[in-house]
Amino acid sequence: MQTFHQAPPLSLYIHLPWCLKKCPYCDFNSHEVPASGFEEKLYINALINDLKFELNRIEGRKIVSIFFGGGTPSLFLPESIEQLLNSIQAQLNFDLDIEITLEANPGAVEAKKFHEYKAMGINRLSLGIQSFNDQSLTLLGRIHNANEAKKAIELSREAGFENFNLDLMFGLPNQKIDDVLTDLKQAVDYSPTHISWYQLTIEPNTIFGSKPPKLPSDDVIWSMQEKGQVFLKKNDFEQYEVSAYAKDNYRSIHNINYWQFGDYLGIGAGSHGKITSIINSQIERYVRHKIPARYIELVDLKNSITEKKVLETKEVPLEFMMNALRLTDGVTENLFFERTGLPIKTIEKELMIAKNRNLLDYHNKRIKPSFRGHRYLNDLLHVFMK
How is domain 330-383 classified at the CATH fold level? Predict the structure, then answer.
């Protein structure tokens, strides 16, 4: 039996699903803008209405973070984003230190837009750079080049964004270790507060999934990762999650809430949500319809959620660990109890097995992956599968 004494922090994720072009590696719910354009006003109104149906899930909590993801949110007019943000603020209570992030792609930005985003209250940008190498960008199917990537960073800084993330990838086709370090050096030179640096993976149901490119060997990719981590640490970027590196005091509030098994409302086509109810002593996950046009129709019918599941008690420990064990510092026993509603003895046997296999550091009531556990995270998670 789960017992919750307080609800977790609550975030809001907003999915804006259109892109100018679908990248061949992307398995997110994104849709190319049709020649006739996309229904921006209808979609914004649908988001506003959809949020109204979520209010009963909040149970008095404030919102600690908002994330506009995609797709390419920067395709939307600033006035549309502002209309949505104003409506959200009218319906929800914001934490005093709320983090509001908007994703932007270098191929879909303008100086005027960045200034308007800043003025309306967005206080963090996440720029999808991926690489500063033109050849790599072409192979990845990106619509921007290296100069446009650099320009986007400069524009964000000129607009007054002190807190911004740069997305970069490694393990790319034809990429060498020196190329990886060159990308990282160029990124660091722009003084971002956060770098999301992740390995290219080939996912099913993508163009790369059906026609896989030739990637560097596993040994070379491991060397890329090791040398890149050393470089980032030397430049004061602390790794706090599998692919997240931040300057002091600039860890992403929104992402940490995910990884610490916090709660989040999801609105928009294909968005996911996770909500803990103290009243009902349960954790529920849900997914909204992923096709934008149909999503708009279903919001009007008050029926945009297509999947809903209350987690069984036996499922909760693994769900927690799949998030928490991505964190370099791990989590406390107390956080496990707070977020799952279960005593630590529920996973005592699994903790000792993982520790004895040298996959887990478990000392002073703190649970965190060992060096080996970080490298073989799937093996570590397998211990908690029942």
Answer: Arc Repressor Mutant, subunit A (1.10.10)
